[in-house]
Structure prediction request, 46 residues.
Amino acid sequence: MSGYSMEWLLCPICKGKTRIKLRWDTVLEHFPLYCPKCKGETLVDV
Prediction:
């Protein structure tokens, strides 16, 4: 898996780090993203 950059998906509300990591080729549509920091759930498209 060397050569792939991975980044944490940030919460669009509080900008906190969530528990989801993304690769450069990840596609998410209408994904219910839960943030443990603000305890909110938001639908995201990545």
Remarks:
- The chain has one domain: 6-44.
